[in-house]
Amino acid sequence: xxxxxxxxxxxxxxxxxxxxxxxxxxxxxxxxxxxxxxxxxxxxxxxxxxxxxxxxxxxxxxxxxxxxxxxxxxxxxxxxxxxxxxxxxxxxxxxxxxxxxxxxxxxxxxxxxxxxxxxxxxxxxxxxxxxxxxxxxxxxxxxxxxxxxxxxxxxxxxxxxxxxxxxxxxxxxxxxxxxxxxxxxxxxxxxxxxxxxxxxxxxxxxxxxxxxxxxxxxxxxxxxxxxxxxxxxxxxxxxxxxxxxxxxxxxxxxxxxxxxxxxxxxxxxxxxxxxxxxxxxxxxxxxxxxxxxxxxxxxxxxxxxxxxxxxxxxxxxxxxxxxxxxxxxxxxxxxxxxxxxxxxxxxxxxxxxxxxxxxxxxxxxxxxxxxxxxxxxxxxxxxxxxxxxxxxxxxxxxxxxxxxxxxxxxxxxxxxxxxxxxxxxxxxxxxxxxxxxxxxxxxxxxxxxxxxxxxxxxxxxxxxxxxxxxxxxxxxxxxxxxxxxxxxxxxxxxxxxxxxxxxxxxxxxxxxxxxxxxxxxxxxxxxxxxxxxxxxxxxxxxxxxxxxxxxxxxxxxxxxxxxxxxxxxxxxxxxxxxxxxxxxxxxxxxxxxxxxxxxxxxxxxxxxxxxxxxxxxxxxxxxxxxxxxxxxxxxxxxxxxxxxxxxxxxxxxxxxxxxxxxxxxxxxxxxxxxxx
Length: 676
Prior knowledge:
676 residues, 7-stranded mixed β-sheet, 12 helices, disordered C terminus
């Protein structure tokens, strides 16, 4: 990987043989784990301007340039999180000469508050090409990381590192997006995202927590008091989503079963489950372009016509091999091909099978092998170790998908973001019903592993020693569980939910897990933190294996307005619908520990009991719920995994949801709206 300094540029063809499709990652970290930014991409013509609002790619318009540019969202790393963007360079419209990649912050935050800002660029096989580290971002709210541009028919990359004190509005103006400060305040009775003059809104507003259900395009409701919501930018096509509440059934009684496109009653063996699941998934990927593209863009696949196949016989030695599936994407006469190996019902991938498919793919010039199972891959801990023949010029990438991620992407499309066709939305709904059915075998990570019971017993009788490999296995499976919780909760809410990794940049993932394993041996606790977009703090989960208790908690800052008693009363009012057994602790300024604490039931009639008697300054409050922890390693009624899911769901629904409506960011009256 080539390190670039600010202002340097390099031709992509000199770095790799295959740069027709590349993936760019923007990353950063913060001391609190809460620093975030929104990524945007501008496609510019020869004059350095956008052709129209469709050339502005951001969170409400994640695909641009006829599908050649796609925002893939955030992915967790050992140091925090990274935003990933897919570029199909062969498919970029010929009028586009330059692609600018930027990010913006909101609510008065600045890029100088973040640590380890960096950009990496990888080819279609996942090999790193370029790395650009940024040390001097400064007090700016918008920042250009880099740009891709054409020179003499070749794509090149330039490390820019330029900030904008005027924010996203100033950046957008420089590239030809017109800003209308008054737009969106009154009279926008047409599509959300369109201004009174009929032009589409191009610059995204600061993030505002959105409702759990996305409805078809309709008129904006006027808000009588307070800041008025800004119309949401949209793409040119209307999006179709399915409502959460089903229509009243016409069945005579509850015993009648709805006819399903993908029935499950005939599934009797693991082989039947694998065959059916592969066929169902691949067929929907081919028929719903948004869904197929979303699952394959991160693997280097171009944006083009997709066809999928099952049970394909391919020569290999004395007997042919039959991968579970094949994905082919055609773009401008070129083929991208991936072999698919599927496992369901918790069955592990077989290294010899995956190795054989890697060898076949290399010989036949295929681009990738995709494994699909209930397991969740971790950075630095591959699910399957394969040998790569360095003598071969053609490189094959090995990628992994979990069934939980497949279900997450389907949920995001049909419940929150929408697709362009009502039949496609119904297909995705049928796929999601299939994946979530108890007989499908596609339920994601469901087993804490063979080491779970011995580790719990060793902690209980204090015989577990640091360095025990079984503790490392538990830590890895805990991380898999937390990542799956993020996928499931994010799909339900329609918001980004990501694990917070509080580690210094550059720390090897296995070394970080080894430290956590030692802490597990000495303290007997598993700990994780989740950042949910639009919430006032980080959701913390602690599993105490010594006491058998799960603790879910969040720290919220105290209001800066009013006297201490007024702040306490305001918090109690916000939690009017929260459980009576909610624990509230007072946090003191200067990191001087905690002050008074009590349950919500006791504090409702006497909010003053939560205030320090010595008048110490209050920095915030910690809200916690406790729950008994499941003992078995699986996902049964008494299982540990089930208990974690239930604890997170209850805490979010009964506590965090009460805070979101008051803790979300709102747009100030002076912030501009852009019109294309």
